[in-house]
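Fold it.
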Amino acid sequence: MNKKYTTIDTSQPVVMGILNVTPDSFSDGGKFDAVNKAVDHACQMNAEGAGIIDIGGESTRPGAEPVSVQQEIDRVIPVIESLSKELNTPISIDTSKPEVMREAIKAGASMVNDVYALRAEGAIEAVAETAVPVCLMHMQGEPRTMQKEPHYKNVITEIKAFLLKRTEACIQAGIARDRIMIDPGFGFGKTLQHNLLLLKHMEALVDTGFPVLVGVSRKSMFGQLLGLGVDERLHAGLAAATVAVMKGARIIRTHDIKPTVEALKLCYSIQSVTDDI
């Protein structure tokens, strides 16, 4: 059991660096699927100020095909083992499979980030038996079909209700409340309007008391709104991250570490400055 990190410090906004060791992720697929390249990139993200490194071995982009447990383990475990020796920064495993969660934690991961919010059989038990924190994400549908006409009567209340239901299930299973984070899942079964409403009303999720993680880095919402290609979405992503943090989000998951760290430092400075002059 890995007890190196039992909670993630969110007293200040935290940048989570994305490390996809996959051939088919929407932005960086194939760039870091060799162990040495992945480790070098993680170390670079750490040097630029990433407070968490999030490692994923299965793409969850719209239309993505699933991979086997063994494929995912083969992709992520060598990277986690190497990084756990190189860095003191918390390593997160981005997976929905309980077998991968267990192997990743044994290898040195100290957080689970699950787009299915621990709904897979055995997943909630896999986290409950450890001391690591978990992030529960909302997704309507599943990756292959989630962007085919997603619909909500009220996107804010439905996502909030889903996440509160999942947090309660985790607490009932023995996962301490202070080990739980939530993520509204931008782009996971949401239209552009849904995503914009989530940003506009972020405080509704913050009011749950659970730290809110936001992942908008290079998302297609910016392509739809601004006509930008994947590699042209930095500025829009920074704006969205700034809005989210100023409304109370505590973790920003991103490909672009240094500019996001700088933006969040400004946000925190504004939030923490005293009125006494």
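The CA atoms of residues 94 and 152 lie 26 Å apart.
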